[in-house]
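Cross-check.
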Amino acid sequence: MPAGSRIVISRLAASLALVAAVTALCSRALSVNATTAGYAYLIVVLATATAWGRLEAIAASIAAVLCFNFFFLPPLGRFTIAEPENWVALFTFLVTALVASHLSDRAKKQALEARERQRETEQLYALSRAILMSEPNQSIGFQSARHIAQIFECSGVALYDAKTGEVFNGGPTDLPEAEARLKQVVIQGASLHDADSGTLVAAVTLGGQPIGGLALKGAVLSDGALQALLNLVAIALERVRTEEAANRAEVARQSEEFKSTLLDAIAHEFKTPLTSIKAASTSILTDSAALSPQLRELTTIIDEETDRLSLLVTEAVHVSQIDAGKIHLEKQPLVLKEILERVLGSFGPRLEGRSLGLEIGERLPPVSADADLVSLALRQLIDNGLKYSPPASPIGITAGAEGDRVVIRVRDQGPGIPERERERVFDKFYRRDSARDLVPGSGLGLHIAREIARAHGGDLWVESAPGSGSEFCMAIPVQEDTRKP
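Predicted model, tokenized:
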């Protein structure tokens, strides 16, 4: 006989024994009247309903009616329900048994539910704490599956990460058959429950989008606890993504720092021979008046190209530092007219017949800026205009005061930039599809120029329309003591 059946039989026997004891006490020992006996039977029925349940209470109420009828209602010693009080007694005992047992069952269920909610809350808290304290050098997915199996006492757990396609198993029993179901719930966004194996498979969502799946075998959870568990798993999977992104960012940062350091070292190594070449070429041009025209021309080319190569080495170091997020400004009062004329002069051999027009507004206020970096930004803008303009088309450069800023505009006659791409052209390594194979470049020039402008407290933007050329505008704040009150 099952243990549950034995418990029920023992409770039924106990309830009947209580009715028999009250009968013996009231009829033999105390000789009470029918009213007192009726109250005593009611107490037994109530106590039975409260302690055990509906079946035991009904059995006690029937036994109480029979005993009450046989021992306390006339004619004594006979079973009869002809009199109205017999029906009243029977009805009263039955209603009392049903109401009391119902209230008792509901109270027990509420107490049981409260205990279950408390247990689930404690389990969820333990899981959240375990996830937060996960070992950084181990897979968070594997640790989460293992913690779920331990805390929720599951015989098997499978956690599926939809982004990586990995399945993490936890618990004493692996669930290889759950992998296909996990992928299915991720696609469908629904839950599956296999009653035969006791396995529940549910989708893990974040922001309404499925990012994984969770399979639990042998776990008993309410809907609220299951949803809270899925949210914690979503947080764990998102933490995996966040840590991976942080690791990639750290690797990229270290790579940029290494590249900056390496370029800086190489630049210093280049500077020494370039300085020697420059000194030698300058000395030959200055002191050797008897040079033939051919040798003088070749020496002049060496001298000019040495200056250009030295400038390229310096700019490469600045570009690397800016790319690594290490912009170091050495500000000083600058007259932008002198900077612009010097920058335009450096493009001489590269113009290939094109003209660079320069218009500077009257009373242009001085700016406080780093001369080398501002020159680098201007060269990037002019070089961009030369690359995208048709042959023989002019490049126009204007500079004027606009409020508390000086705005330098570089105008080209290129194909123009669609509105949807006007911000993207400043992204690192971005190049338009229409020009990627036709125009040389790395996609860093405009990004570097904007970073320099913003490091000075200014900005860089483009005004353009398809077929009408582009105008890149760089704003730099004027020197503090020259601003109007």
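The CA atoms of residues 106 and 112 lie 10 Å apart. The two ends are 100 Å apart (CA to CA). Passed to J.P. for a second look.
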